[in-house]
Amino acid sequence: QVQVEEYGGGLVQAGGSMRLTCTASGHTFYGVTMAWFRQAAGQGREFVAAARSSGGSTAYADSVKGRFNISREKGKNTVYLEMNNLNPEDTAVYYCAATGPAGDYDFWGQGTQVTVTT
Fold it and tell me: Contact at 8 Å (CB) between 109 and 47?
């Protein structure tokens, strides 16, 4: 059984910053890649950022590049998402996901709400 849990989220004013934390656990956890996705009300889920366990490579959606930073503790299944210069368009439920043995995002957290106010 793999468990993925997100921490953080809440209300922040436009221009502010927020950090989300995600941990994954379980004896069958592979977690080669851990990533953040988000889903705004009435919209589909979209990719935000990802970090691989080996090599430290990262990837970002164009909409957050330069504002968000994903980092992963070496040797640990913990990933952070530092979000800066937030704007109302960043308001969404943010989900953490981890890959399974086939490289698909098999494991998901319950999501955490981020609301950016003007």
Answer: no
